Amino acid sequence: MTEGGTEEVAGRTITITFPDDPPVTRARVSAAGMAEPPATRETPARGPKSDRPGRVTGVEQHQLRGSLGWLIYGERAARGWSQEVLAERARVGLTTVRDLESGRVRPSDRMTRRLAEALGFDRDPVSVAVLDLRFQRAAGDSLRRWNRRRPPRVAVQRVYEQARAVLDAEDAERRAQADEAGMFVAELLHGLTNPPEPSRPMSPAQAWPGGWPRVRG
Hints:
This protein is mainly alpha-helical. It is 49% helix and 8% strand.
């Protein structure tokens, strides 16, 4: 025989295979005697393996450099720190700080937290959380979030709730100022496009209703 086949012997099905035959996947048999498809293993979703940011290319780099990169640079320059000092205080590599400021990498939420704690070492926890959320919002869709096994502690959640309230209040005030400035510009443009009608010169009778003024010599 050159090919495999099946034979029924004493009520049982026997499969005969040969080395030249393709591999056959054996199916499991349920209690009811029905064949079940072979089980497949599912790979669980995992987060990033390290704090090392992910590389970016193209337009995303310019967006990150203009938002997150400038924000990190501004906070660092306000303290008079160099990139080496920030890297040492945040416990990250110097290359990581340079890549973040230039927008060449995608940051993780752990990385933004480290930078916020380093730059806000003399601030209260709410101010540190506000700075962390600013970094995360500046990163936008490029932010990589870790898959945590446990939720943050209740105290940490309360701190971040207060930080979000502070940012929401700042955003509301900024929108109100923008609306006020927009109304001023709209009124100014309306005045330029619709100038008032020129007034007609007054006659002597309108200027001196009681008569001509007398001039004494």
